[in-house]
């Protein structure tokens, strides 16, 4: 049995207001429309709900039972809808985002601090993960990844500039080592690797030679799953690393790291915030999204 919710609203309004005229006024409807809703409900249930005379409207036994069953439930539904509508004026709720450590530390965290301060009823859940995550299947509202690794059916907005990479080593490590003048020279060095959990392989080091892009596969003797630990290792003189310029620039400026093959090292596309649909995004999600898009 399928009952129109509007018919039930009309029924509750008649009970609460005592007659069809007042019920119509309360609903912002007409007396004939309310009468039609009651008729529809009675036909659907195959039960008479009201005893009607020219002077009064009273509930039948079936009508009393129906009001007992659904009266408070409809009030709860209306209250729930009203509370949901308030979310537009006072955003709250949880926003779940998956990203890797690098993205969170250098491009996301500073942008969401303002949101946390201004909207205390919004909860932002950041999960650090360098896997290629199916955000819909794993229950995330959005993810952050390099543009080249995002599926085409996703909505994607850039939240960073293009990511310039840099090949670096410490002066301490380079003492007595072969100078790095070309890609082949890397074969003579200890290389610090980053493991991609999705493919269970090492991140290739991308270089440009003329018009060609060359991916060097480092034979690493020390492997991590995030850039921060690689940065620690290269500063400590444990090998050569391929890292974003943003995180090594201060070390280059102070001479704690040296850079190599600057003309050949690749630049990756920006980081993108990606999600499945613009439809029905919560106000809380939209606030977080707008914050991440800011320069």
Word description of this protein:
With 295 residues, the protein is of the alpha+beta class. The protein is built from nine helices and 16 strands. Strands 4-3-5-16-6 form a five-stranded mixed beta sheet, with helices on one face. It is rod-shaped, with a radius of gyration of 32 Å.
Q: Can you summarize this structure?
A:
This is HTH-type transcriptional regulator PgrR. The protein has helices spanning 5-17, 20-27, 31-45, 61-86, 101-118, 171-174, 227-235, 245-253, 283-293, and strands at 50-52, 57-59, 93-99, 122-128, 142-146, 155-158, 163-169, 191-196, 201-202, 205-209, 212-216, 220-224, 241-244, 258-260, 267-268, 271-275. It has 295 residues and is α+β, with helices and mostly antiparallel strands.
Topology:
Elements: H1 5-17, H2 20-27, H3 31-45, E1 50-52, E2 57-59, H4 61-86, E3 93-99, H5 101-118, E4 122-128, E5 142-146, E6 155-158, E7 163-169, H6 171-174, E8 191-196, E9 201-202, E10 205-209, E11 212-216, E12 220-224, H7 227-235, E13 241-244, H8 245-253, E14 258-260, E15 267-268, E16 271-275, H9 283-293
Parallel strand pairs: 3-4, 3-5, 8-12
Antiparallel strand pairs: 1-2, 5-16, 6-16, 7-13, 7-14, 7-15, 8-9, 10-11
Helix pairs in contact: 1-2, 1-3, 1-4, 2-3, 5-9
């Amino acid at each position: 049995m399928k009952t129109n919710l509007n018919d039930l609203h009309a029924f509750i309004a008649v009970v609460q207001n005592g007659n069809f005229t007042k019920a119509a006024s309360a609903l912002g409807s007409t007396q004939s429309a309310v009468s039609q809703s009651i008729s529809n409900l009675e036909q659907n249930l195959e039960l008479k709900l009201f005893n009607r005379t020219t002077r009064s409207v009273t509930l039948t036994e079936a009508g009393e039972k129906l009001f007992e069953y659904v009266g408070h439930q409809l009030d709860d539904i209306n209250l729930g809808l009203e509370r949901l509508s308030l979310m537009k004026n006072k955003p709250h709720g949880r926003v779940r985002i998956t990203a890797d450590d690098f993205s969170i530390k250098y491009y996301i965290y500073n942008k969401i601090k303002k949101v946390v301060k201004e909207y205390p009823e919004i909860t932002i859940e950041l999960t650090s993960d360098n896997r290629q995550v199916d955000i819909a299947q794993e229950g995330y509202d959005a993810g952050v990844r390099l543009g080249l690794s995002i599926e085409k059916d996703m909505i994607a907005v850039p939240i960073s500039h293009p990511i310039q990479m840099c090949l670096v080593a410490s002066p301490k490590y380079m003492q007595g080592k072969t100078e790095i003048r070309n890609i082949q020279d890397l074969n003579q060095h200890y290389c610090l690797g980053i493991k991609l959990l999705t493919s269970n392989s090492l991140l290739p080091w991308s270089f440009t030679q003329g018009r060609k892009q060359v991916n060097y596969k480092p034979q690493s003797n020390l492997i991590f799953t995030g850039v921060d630990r690689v940065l620690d290792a290269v500063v400590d003189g444990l090998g050569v690393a391929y890292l974003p310029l943003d995180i090594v620039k201060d070390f280059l400026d102070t001479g704690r790291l040296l850079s190599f093959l600057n003309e050949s090292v690749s630049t990756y596309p920006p980081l993108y915030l990606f999600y499945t649909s613009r439809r029905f995004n919560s106000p809380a999600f939209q606030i977080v999204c707008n914050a991440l898009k800011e320069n």
